[in-house]
Amino acid sequence: MQVHQTAIEGLIELTPRIFEDERGHFFESYNKPLFISLGLPMEFVQDNQSFSVKGVLRGLHMQNSPFAQGKLVRVITGQVLDIAVDLRPDSPTFGQYETFLLDAKLGNMAYIPEGFAHGFVALEDSVFSYKCTNVYNKASESGIIWNDPDLNINWGINDPIVSEKDQELKTLREVMSQAVV
Ligand SMILES: Cc1cn([C@H]2C[C@H](O)[C@@H](COP(=O)(O)OP(=O)(O)O[C@H]3O[C@@H](C)C(=O)[C@@H](O)[C@H]3O)O2)c(=O)[nH]c1=O
What is the mean pLDDT of residues 2-27? Predict the structure, then answer.
């Protein structure tokens, strides 16, 4: 497994070794001892899978404490542009984001720690799969609008398909001003 630490502390890309033979291929998609050796959380309690047609954008999502989630994300078929925004209040990279081109053919994954808003856009019809360190809790759901003018994320696509719920998300500025009041 190749491990790439991004410019944002704790945000990591993992690329597995793929073994190919006449039957097809094999790779390890999760290895607990490796996570322990990297100092990453290794206890995942929920696995999720979604399918998105090309052009769908999901995000930017997070859950608030005490239901904050770390996520190990990857694509099973297709390709997505995955985005993680650092919203950890004490982080020197607060408000910065990282982009991952997740591709089923590479099997590459991103580990997104607690305290990040996360989203992706499907560049092809894609099955997205992820492990979470905490369970789903509707009341703890939070998020930031995908086209937040301050974050100014380059999604690489015009007019994505966005759910009504996600279209109603607030900007980071609005969320932060509400938190202060
Ligand atoms: C996320 C989630 C949703 N649901 C339900 C709620 C809803 O009726 C339906 C669809 O939910 P959503 O529209 O929120 O699904 P989706 O937009 O795919 O939400 C996901 O987006 C990506 C970007 C993330 O980072 C994830 O953590 C998660 O928030 O599934 C669960 O039952 N359990 C879950 O863990």
Answer: 96
How much distance in Å is there from the Cα of 115 to the middle of ligand 1?
17
Kindly indicate whether the ipTM for this predicted assembly is greater than 0.95, answering yes or no. Answer: yes
Residues lining ligand 1, Cβ inside 6 A = 48, 50, 58-59, 61, 118-120, 136, 163, 165
For 62, the token pair is 């997070």
Q: pTM for the whole thing?
A: 0.96
Q: In this structure, which CATH number among 2.40.50.140, 3.40.50.300, 1.10.275.10, 2.60.120.10 belongs to the domain 2-180?
A: 2.60.120.10
Q: How far is the CA of 132 from the centre of ligand 1 (A)?
A: 12
Which two three-digit tokens encode residue 154? 């380059």
